[in-house]
Fold this protein.
Amino acid sequence: MSKAERLHLRLDPEQKALLEAASEATGSTVSTFVLSAATEAAASVLADRRAFVLDETAWRAFDEALDRPAAEVSGLRELLSAPTVLDPDRSGDDG
């Protein structure tokens, strides 16, 4: 695999020293260490959004929940339509 792309980072001296020490401890270059750690972190973040693993019992419960028809939850419609503290035009604003 040919590596043609570059990624430039700005970091403070403490961060650079930490990365250099960790790369030295693993016997790799700073570039290899950072690329490996960043790639693993990115894969982990995305894995949580693409797939999840359940044992047989949990899968059955999940599958049954998906098959159930939607149910009206008392008060939920009102809760979701009520103004929140994040709404800029809410009445009774404290300041």
User: Anything to note?
Assistant: Residues 35 and 69 are 46 Å apart (CA to CA). The mean pLDDT is 89. Helices lie at 13-26, 30-50, 56-67, 76-81. The first helix runs from residue 13 to 26.
